[in-house]
Specification:
- The structure is a single chain.
- By secondary structure, the protein is mainly β.
- The protein has one domain: 6 Propeller (Neuraminidase).
- Helix content is 6%, strand content 43%.
- The protein is built from two helices and 30 strands.
- Strands 14, 15, 16, 17, 18 and 19 form a six-stranded antiparallel sheet that branches. Strands 1-30-29-28 form a four-stranded antiparallel sheet, with no helix packed on it.
- The longest helix is centred in the N-terminal third of the chain and has 18 residues.
- The radius of gyration is 21 Å and the shape is globular.
- 45% of the residues are buried.
- The N terminus is likely disordered.
- This is BNR repeat-containing protein.
């Protein structure tokens, strides 16, 4: 009888998923929001997405999805790293079509600390990922100046205009955004540089950064003063890297690399937080066909009132518009307990090929669902259509894979939560849906 009931439950779940054309990539996987790109399109002739996650037992897994056949492959990169969704891998396709991935412990401890790297031995084949290499981007001089050694997140990018130099960013020395570079496809790395810091060094202050690269000459940074649970007026800033310097949105220089670090207020202000409008956190940045940064972020007038915003820089000012009220946090707060992550919104992702389209997670009834938003006037007005509805599980942290090209299928990936109490206490899966217009 028990077996029949389990079979019936599985059939019902399959019908519900199939009714929404949702496919399961893994039954056991989670990711955070600041280690990217967590999913990329490769140049495989069949159309292929490479992505990865952290299992509920702390394994780090890479996966590929063949968009022509629907077939998937998986490779465990590291067994029992730690149970923490901050550790998800980020991916980069190298010029010779091998795939590089990087990930870290969450901060690190006596059990492990540093950046972990794997590279495929064969082009585009995640089954051939190498053994893990662990390294610590630091120097004695940097540690003496910035005091704190910690390694969280990795964000690797390649710039073809710099002879395919690789840049990798993370929250490392000083608890601040750092970067390192490689000119040999990741075999060796430069010493790190701290990019952004508080004016008076505070090793408990940690700016959060989302990155976007055109793959040619620029890496765009969207960042905050710090964490919204620590910064009562957490604002949003923008700059970009190009030609050995960091620049504001209007093209004026902030600092050369040898003048780093700079302070958040040195960059372009996207949103200045006030007690009335609320502190903020960031979700995505892409560049539109005119080369303008397009940003998605959240304001919190209160911790239970999450408001999604969309803003485009038109060359002179930010066109900043409200998208939708998304509800409150998605973690499932235990009864009688105070929520530890009140600013964990469901999440937004911008289509990098058409930034007038966003996908976002918001509360519909008592469940987090995914919707599509379309704007033709820089965010003033929106057409909103459902991607999921009547779900039994929360749908959160949607992402459109990076390096999407014309002709690629339009695929959205996201997390479904059977349980998400905390970033160290979860039981989630990764699903995907082909949104290509038919």
């Amino acid at each position: 009888m028990k077996i029949r009931l389990l079979l019936l439950a599985f059939v019902c779940l399959s019908v519900k998923l199939n009714a929404q054309n949702v496919s399961i990539l893994t039954e056991d996987g989670a990711w955070c929001w600041f280690s990217d790109p967590r999913a990329i399109y490769t140049n495989d002739k069949n159309g292929q997405i490479v992505t990865g996650w952290v299992t509920k037992s702390g394994d780090i897994v890479a996966a590929s999805l063949d968009l022509k056949s629907g077939k998937t492959a998986q490779k465990t990169l590291y067994t029992k790293l730690e149970v923490d969704d901050h550790d998800n891998p980020a991916f980069l396709q190298l010029p010779d079509n091998r795939i590089l991935t990087q990930y870290t412990w969450h901060g690190g401890s006596k059990d492990g600390m540093g950046v972990i790297q794997n590279t495929t031995l064969e082009p585009l084949d995640i089954r051939t990922f190498s053994d893990s290499v662990i390294f610590k981007p630091q120097t004695p001089e940097l540690l003496a100046k910035f005091k704190r050694e910690t390694y969280t997140y990795a964000n690797p990018f390649l710039l073809s205009a710099e002879n395919n130099k690789i840049y990798s960013f993370g929250r490392w020395i000083g608890f601040k955004p750092n970067f390192i570079t490689s000119t040999d496809n990741g075999k060796t790395w430069s010493d790190p540089k701290v990019v952004i810091t508080s004016k008076a060094l505070d090793t408990n202050n940690r700016p959060y950064v989302k990155y976007y690269s055109d793959g040619k000459s620029k890496i765009h940074l969207l960042f905050t003063d710090g964490h919204p649970n620590a910064e009562p007026l957490n604002s949003v800033y923008y700059c970009y890297y190009e030609k050995d310097a960091f620049w504001r949105a209007d093209g004026t220089k902030i600092a050369n690399i040898d003048q780093l670090p700079f302070h958040p207020s040195d960059a372009t202000v996207v949103y200045k937080a006030t007690p009335e409008t609320g502190k903020a956190w960031i979700f995505d940045i892409v560049i539109d066909p005119k080369g303008r940064p397009v940003v998605a972020y959240t304001r919190y007038p209160t911790n239970e009132n999450h408001q999604y915003y969309y803003t485009v820089f038109d060359g002179k000012k930010w066109n900043d518009h409200h998208l939708i009220a998304s509800g409150k946090w998605f973690p499932q707060t235990p009864e009688g307990k105070k929520e530890r992550e009140e600013n964990y919104s469901g999440g937004l992702t911008i289509d990098p090929l058409d930034p007038s389209i966003v996908y976002f997670s918001h509360e519909v009834g008592n469940v987090f669902e995914i919707s599509k938003g379309e704007t033709r006037d820089l965010g003033k007005t929106w057409k909103i259509t459902p991607v999921t509805r009547n779900s039994e599980l929360d749908n959160v942290r949607p992402v459109i894979p990076r390096y999407k090209k014309k002709g690629d299928k339009n695929v959205l990936l996201w997390m479904q939560n059977r349980k998400y109490v905390h970033y160290t206490d979860y039981d989630t899966r990764i699903v995907w849906k082909d949104l290509t217009a038919r």
